[in-house]
Target: Oxygen-insensitive NADPH nitroreductase
Amino acid sequence: MNAVIELLNSHRSIRKFTDQPIPQETLNTLVQAGQAAATSSFIQACTVIQVNDKDTRSQLVECSGGQVYVGEAPAFLVFCADMQRLKLACEMNDAEINAGFTEQFITATVDVALFAQNVSIAAESLGMGVAYIGGIRNQIARVSELLDLPELVYPVFGLCLGYPDQNPEVKPRLPVDVVLKQDSYNDNGNKETIAEYDKSVREYYQTRTGGNKEMTWSEQMSGMMIKEARPHMLNFLKEKGFLLK
Model:
């Protein structure tokens, strides 16, 4: 255990922030830290949009399902998978991009996730808190229009940043032996281990909500997985030039 691992293990989503602003120079430094993340074949397929305009922020609150902290956080960033820049690189070299491959969608999306995680860790190392906002995909076409996103660019998620005005407990994660397998995949003992884990999650929710929420991890996941998951996404991504082949 060292300071870096302790920082990683102390991550919580922060949804209440103080009024302390984040200097632009600091935000630039965080984005530079994001750029230092691994990138598939050096494509660097992530673009970050810092949303300052209050009206746009307000509309993004609506798009995210009413998550008010999208509008209240000192900084809000939208992380986009960007293959448009790769198209530009082709044009600069008198080549025509062969776009639309599923592999390109995967590599660009992974690039964004790695980039954003670097930003988050860097922010937390400076005493800030973050909250990822996947809810912007609820109305992804509207978000794309608000941010003037061109073809071959799509918003993957948003990120609230600021100095915490709350101190929530760390949410318990699955036991390591459920997620770490040796040599091949197997689920031997997973059901029993997850049943034990469910008890800790139930206790976490009871403590966090003062007894107002009583739910296990498996109950929460089963309730989510029987529902449709943003079925509009496929058509939107195809319209943006992704997942065509």
